[in-house]
Task: structure prediction
Amino acid sequence: MVNWRRWFRPAPALPFALRVSDAHGRPVKRVDLEGQWLPSGRPFRATPIVADGLCVIPWSGDDRVLQVQVRSGAGSGELTVERDREEPHRALGVRLREEAAVSLSS
Result:
């Protein structure tokens, strides 16, 4: 028997990819991601497998936007990813900013 409802269901959203590099353009080996899915407000936290700075993140349910902070030993960065962006099949480039060194003197 053919399940006709399945034919008319919207296709699932493609996962999105981040290509993360340090401030000098070199791919990072490890990233920590922390953010929030919108409009649900659910928190997001992941340490995905990274290959040549590339990591793949699946969309969560019906959420349309992810606000995420990207951290690595090489620095940090922030971005907002929208599900309905142009060219959803292309990886989003994230170049991390170096963390400023803080020195305390008395």
